[in-house]
């Protein structure tokens, strides 16, 4: 499998190359040169497999010869998850299911990709050194740090928006004492953090000096590692003989893009619901072709407090028939003007598959309370938005009654305990292994939205860890 940039000017790479590169040199994102396709018989053959084996088989076409120990890496990645099914399904009501993606070490769906990707980095490096940078709206940072702390040859710096993640999310990052980890709180929004990461990659000299790679979902390996759980859910509910629909809480568009990729590979998916909080740019776009940036509003679902969804560029590339010049023109115009000029034909193609849904904080609290009252299910704010999207009557009316609707539960409710308690009257508790989280000392630097200052902090991490012999 070879990979090309959405903007057409970067070198064509194999899987190991895109894993290490993260962002393409031309500012675009890597996508498969051709999409693998599974027949109904091949999908049927995945039934009943342990999750690690299923994940390895689904990812194999993307990885190619770059990772000979793929199945073993998957086994190592998922052996420590809290649920034997890894990604269990729970039925909430007739026709509505929730797939719990939060049984990993940091209680968020990001663990499913990053526990594997961390091992992939180490496998590919083989003694070489790498500096990984990432931006997080809450969960990616903790999952990346957990996956990469103390790994040979790797230094990792994570940027998060100061005061805009939950206390549990922050502490899961900042209480890590590993010498190869740096946490940087940015005075600004997640979009500011994401822009700083992209700017570091655009600084060619700094990129080469630090040998940068990315841990955000701009890294294709992250998307590839998220595709398998959509296969697992659909198979459990009758695929390939039966269609399913997915409702995915969405911020940076990576998780729902993985669902789209599963459909592109042959999984029978009737509809994909893009479930947003009050930062509803994607829902507005799907309703009226209005991809216009507004100020980021802090919400009960901070991992979705995003206006610039990086992974949308990958889908745009497909909607525009893989025209890299058109993608670059539209994306540069978006950054310049704050509004994306998507051709009407491409927008209609997206609407044929995707539906948008948005829920504000009051609606999110109401949904958390309703779920607990009606079914006894305790959902965090992000998951509650996904479930509400799957229940939405206007969307459900476009899906045949025989099609199961599956909402992605992306985080454990204890990560957002105050909001969940206020809405449901029940305070969720952290697992025993995290019971002392609030007592652990924190380690974090604070910086403004200043590229020079942030690059200085990343360089200091590289020098410090190199001196300790852990990473460069």
Low-confidence stretches: none
Radius of gyration: 21 Å
Give the CATH topology of the largest domain: Rossmann fold
Classified by CATH, the class of the largest domain is Alpha Beta
Q: Strand count, sense and closure of the main sheet?
A: 6 strands, mixed
Percent range for helical residues? 40-55%
Which outline best applies?
A: globular
Kindly report the average pLDDT value.
95
Multimerization status: single chain
How many domain units?
A: 2
Kindly report how far apart the N and C termini lie.
29 Å
CATH architecture identity of the largest domain:
3-Layer(aba) Sandwich
Strands of the widest sheet, in order across it, are: 3-4-14-9-10-13
Number of strands: 15
SS content category: alpha/beta
Strand content: 5-15%
The helix count comes to 20
Q: Would you mind describing this structure in some detail?
A:
It is built from 20 helices and 15 strands. With 472 residues, it is an alpha/beta fold. The protein has two domains: 85-106 and 221-424, Rossmann fold (3-Layer(aba) Sandwich), CATH 3.40.50.1100; 127-216 and 442-472, Rossmann fold. It has a six-stranded mixed beta sheet, with helices on both faces. Helix 3 crosses helix 4 (70-78), helix 5 (110-125) runs parallel beside helix 6 (139-148) and helix 16 packs across helix 19 (417-424). The chain starts with a strand and ends with a helix. The model has no long low-confidence stretch (mean pLDDT 95).
């Amino acid at each position: 499998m070879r990979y090309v940039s959405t903007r057409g000017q970067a070198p064509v790479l194999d899987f190991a190359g895109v894993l290490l590169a993260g962002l393409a040199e031309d500012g675009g994102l890597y996508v498969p040169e051709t999409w693998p396709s599974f027949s109904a018989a091949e999908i049927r053959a995945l039934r009943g497999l342990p999750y690690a084996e299923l994940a390895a088989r689904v990812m194999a076409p993307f990885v190619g010869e770059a990772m000979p120990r793929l199945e073993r890496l998957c086994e190592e990645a998922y052996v420590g998850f809290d649920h034997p099914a890894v990604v269990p399904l729970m039925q909430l009501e007739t026709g509505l299911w929730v797939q719990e993606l939060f049984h990993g070490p940091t209680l968020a769906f990001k663990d499913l990709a990053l526990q594997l990707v961390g091992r992939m980095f180490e496998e590919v490096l083989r003694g070489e050194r790498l500096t990984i940078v990432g931006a997080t709206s809450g969960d990616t940072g903790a999952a990346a740090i957990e996956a990469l702390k103390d790994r040979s040859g790797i230094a990792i710096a994570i940027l998060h928006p100061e005061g805009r993640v939950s206390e549990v999310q922050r502490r899961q990052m900042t209480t890590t004492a590993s010498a190869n980890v740096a946490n940087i709180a940015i005075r600004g929004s997640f979009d500011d953090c994401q822009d700083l990461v992209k700017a570091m990659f655009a600084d060619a000299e700094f990129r080469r000096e630090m040998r940068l790679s990315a841990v955000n979902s701009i890294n294709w390996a992250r998307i590839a590692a998220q595709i398998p759980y959509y296969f697992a859910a659909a198979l459990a509910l009758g695929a390939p003989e039966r269609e399913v629909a997915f409702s995915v809480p969405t911020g940076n568009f990576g998780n729902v893009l993985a669902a789209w990729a599963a459909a592109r590979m042959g999984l029978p998916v009737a509809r994909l619901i893009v479930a947003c909080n009050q930062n509803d740019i994607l829902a507005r776009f799907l309703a009226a072709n209005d991809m216009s940036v507004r100020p980021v509003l802090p919400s009960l679902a901070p991992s979705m407090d995003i206006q610039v969804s990086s992974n949308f560029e990958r889908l745009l590339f497909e909607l525009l028939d893989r025209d890299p010049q058109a993608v670059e023109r539209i994306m540069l115009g978006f950054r310049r003007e704050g509004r994306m000029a998507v051709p009407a034909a491409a927008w209609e193609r997206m609407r044929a598959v995707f539906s948008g849904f948005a829920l504000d904080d009051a609606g999110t609290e109401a949904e958390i309370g309703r779920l607990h009252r009606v079914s006894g299910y305790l959902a965090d704010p992000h998951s509650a938005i996904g479930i509400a999207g799957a229940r939405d009557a206007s969307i459900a009316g476009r899906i045949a009654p025989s099609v199961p609707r599956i909402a992605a539960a992306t985080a454990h409710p204890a990560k957002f305990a105050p909001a969940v308690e206020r809405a449901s009257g029940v305070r969720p508790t952290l697992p025993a292994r995290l019971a002392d989280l609030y007592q652990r000392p924190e380690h974090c630097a604070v910086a403004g939205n200043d590229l020079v200052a942030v690059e200085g902090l990343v360089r200091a991490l590289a020098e410090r860890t190199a001196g300790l012999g852990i990473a460069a």
